[in-house]
YkgJ family cysteine cluster protein
Amino acid sequence: MEVNCAGCAGCCIDWRALVSDPVAHERQGDRAPIDDTYNLVPLRGHEARSLVDCGYGDAMTPRLFEAGPDDDCIRVDGFDLAAIGDRPVFYLGLRKPPKPVAPFGEHRQWLRSCAFLDPETLQCRIHGDDLYPETCSVYPGDNLHMDQETECERVEDVFGGIRLIDATPPDNRSQPQFAGAVGSKIFGYPDPDELSGVVDRLAANALTAYDRSLFVGIASGSSPGMLDINKAIAETYQSKAHSAESWVGKTIEHWEKRADAAGTRAVVDNPAIYETDHGAPETTGWNP
């Protein structure tokens, strides 16, 4: 497997505003997400804890799902949520605020992008770091193993060029995305009553820091293969996530205040400097 990521970051950016007929691949099947975030990367529980421990408790956001016809279901804020028993299921991903980016040779414009994406080089600021999510590190390997279209191929179809250079799946295949995922990637929220109002805000992309921290705490207090929650760990990580003030959270607030509608031109000089000035790690740039 070999990919050409320079000038792309298609899997890290919501580029639907650039096309007349955007793909809605995440809203297919029985369990459509409540939110409209594109390519939200699922994090494992230990990855969530590591992010919180490194001060990035404000970098994560939850995803809840509409119940399928054969699912257990909990109704909150008018939404029928997929559940396991009486617990709505969710996973955590990295937030995608609007950023001034110029992918695919296009001019700079406002597009929702991964919180860790350098808006200038279009490289991940934690690539190769211990915090780099497993899901990102193996992509698009699982898609290739399951003969599913990759984001690389979607970008090729719309913008041309070759992004997926070698489509041979890697031998060191990880588990499929949700195999054995309960308590590891998929979590059960133990008290649906606490989610009153939260689900509405999730659907409106208006979660508060406290809302997000509730889910971070539950995921952090979970154990693989179990729905039981270690309450002490959950409370500790919920509190740490709620009080986090990383460069991620600070720059998200800045970009959200400054951004215009998705797909509109962004007149921002050297956007990466704003992030690095607030503590973001540098990226290497692409080799010529």
